[in-house]
Write a structure and sequence with these properties.
Blueprint: E1 2-8, E2 16-20, E3 23-29, H1 34-56, H2 59-74, E4 82-86, E5 94-97, E6 102-106, H3 114-127, H4 135-141, H5 147-157
Parallel strand pairs: 1-3, 4-6
Antiparallel strand pairs: 2-3, 5-6
Helix pairs in contact: 2-3, 3-5
The structure holds zinc ion.
Length: 167
C-alpha cells in the first residue's frame, strides 16, 4: 500500500488515515517524532486493510462479476446455484462442486489485483463445464487473456492450488 504522510502545524492532535485515490494518506501532528509515529501508522494501515477486505467481501458483487465474466468468456451459457466468499479456505484460491453448481472463492482473493480475482472466478466457472484439469479445461481458460500472469501471481502467493475439486 502506498502511504503519504502529511504533517500539519494546524489543529492536528491525533494521527488519522484515509484512502485518497488508492494512496493511504496519513495526517499527523507536526511535532510528533518518527519513532512514535511509525507504530501508529502501521496500526492504522492494518485497520484500513481489514476494512477494505471486509467491504469487498460482498457475495452480491461476486455474483455480478461472475455473470459479467460468464457473458464475456462463456457466451452467457453457464449456470450455477451459488457463488460466495469463504474465509476458511486458506490454501485454495477457489473451489467448485460441479454436481451442485456451487462455487466458493477464498476471502484472500479480495485483496489481490482484479485480474487475478477474475482469473480465479473464470477458473471455477470453467469447472462447471469441465471438472478435470484436462486439455479441454485449459483451452476454456485460455480465452481469458491473463491466465498465465494470474497463475504466476497465485504461485508467488503460495496459492497455486486454485486446484480445487470437491466430490
Ligand atoms: Zn481447478
Amino acid at each position: 500500500m502506498d502511504v503519504r504522510v502529511i504533517r500539519s502545524k494546524a489543529r492536528q492532535k491525533t494521527v488519522s488515515a484515509r484512502m485518497v485515490d488508492g494512496v493511504c494518506e496519513i495526517r499527523a501532528p507536526y511535532a510528533i517524532d518518527e519513532a512514535e509515529l511509525k507504530p501508529i501508522i502501521e496500526n492504522l494501515i492494518r485497520r484500513l486493510q481489514k476494512k477494505q477486505a471486509r467491504e469487498s467481501l460482498d457475495d452480491n458483487a461476486l455474483e455480478r462479476r461472475a455473470q459479467w465474466l460468464n457473458e464475456r468468456y462463456f457466451d452467457g451459457k453457464l449456470q450455477w446455484s451459488s457463488i460466495r466468499w469463504v474465509a476458511n479456505q486458506r490454501k485454495r484460491a477457489g473451489s467448485c462442486t460441479p454436481a451442485l453448481g456451487t462455487i466458493r472463492i477464498s476471502s484472500r482473493m479480495a485483496t489481490v489485483p482484479a485480474f487475478v480475482r477474475d482469473y480465479v472466478i473464470v477458473h471455477e466457472l470453467a469447472h462447471l463445464i469441465e471438472p478435470q484439469h484436462s486439455p479441454r479445461f485449459w483451452k476454456l481458460l485460455n480465452k481469458y487473456p491473463r491466465t498465465e500472469r494470474a497463475r504466476g501471481y497465485l504461485m508467488a502467493l503460495g496459492a497455486e492450488d486454485v486446484e480445487d475439486l470437491e466430490e
